[in-house]
Amino acid sequence: MAVKSIIDLKFGLFCDVLKVHSYDSLHRHDEIEFLFFPNKNPTIVRFGAQIVEIKPEQTVLFWGAIPHQLMNIEDDNLQYWVAIPPEAFLYFDLSPSIVRDVMNGKILVESDQDLRAIDIAAYPVWKRESASSQQDVRRTLLMSLESRLRRFHPMEASADSLHPPQPKLLVPKDKNAFQSMYDYISVNFRNPVRVKAIAEAAGLHPNYAIALFKEKCGINISSLITMLRVYEAQRLILTTDRKIVDIAMDTGFSSMSNFYKSFKKITFKNPGDYRQVVYPSRSDFM
């Protein structure tokens, strides 16, 4: 499926239950996403170049800054989801391992049918409270979501795995050229990346690699590299006390002016302002 674009979205504190369908665009947003699909068959979602299977009994938790796309879902299926601003998520008193894994780009999976029943009952209330303009109501919603995430227990990883449990990764028998290029960029974006090297990773001529990547991803190679660098900078700004200039250099930006311009274009905030979300009062994000 060709991807038309990667769309930047912003939800804030938001909850909804809605009918969904497959999309032809990747999208990203700053919020942490908590969602599930109570259908009969697995739902297929793309996270970057990875394609994962989310089973009906699974609830997933991930940072929406990862470009993602709903690829295959049953007709008229419902999606239950909550968007939580990163400043609220980091304010919550949660397991450090869950916070670390989510902010590191992991897709965490829970399978607890008792909690699922509670979630389905709670969603109408969460949805109503997320639509309220009253701070007390939205504060109550945040407290409820914090309590829910404190009960979020990722499925046990296998004994030989060093990674937290994630949805089933669907790997084609032969990795396609787009996946090879995306994987190469994902590993090397912090360093100077040349189109020739990206093309060679996929066994393609550079000109063809450029056209194919645009067709599959919806944006050009340099735009994706910038997006991944900003995503990594967001993570470091929110989770460390490192200097902004060091983060800019370590994430691959050649100059501070380029870093500030790219960061503000994607996040709508300057890096210094973005860091302040780590230390808000609750009223700051309601």
Summarize the helices and strands and which ones pair or pack:
Blueprint (H helix, E strand, L loop, with lengths): L5 E3 L5 E7 L5 E3 L3 E5 L6 E5 L2 E5 L4 E5 L4 E5 L4 E8 L1 H6 L4 H8 L4 E3 L2 H18 L4 H16 L17 E2 L7 H12 L6 H8 L3 H12 L3 H19 L4 H7 L5 H12 L3 H5 L11
Parallel strand pairs: 1-3
Antiparallel strand pairs: 2-9, 4-7, 4-9, 5-6, 5-8, 6-11, 7-10
Which class of the largest domain in CATH terms? Answer: Mainly Beta
Q: Residue ranges: pLDDT <50 for 5 or more in a row? A: 157-165, 170-174, 281-286
Order of helices and strands: EEEEEEEEEHHEHHEHHHHHHH
CATH topology (level 3) name of the largest domain: Jelly Rolls
Name the quaternary structure.
Answer: single chain
Number of strands: 11
Sequence of strands across the biggest β-sheet = 2-9-4-7-10
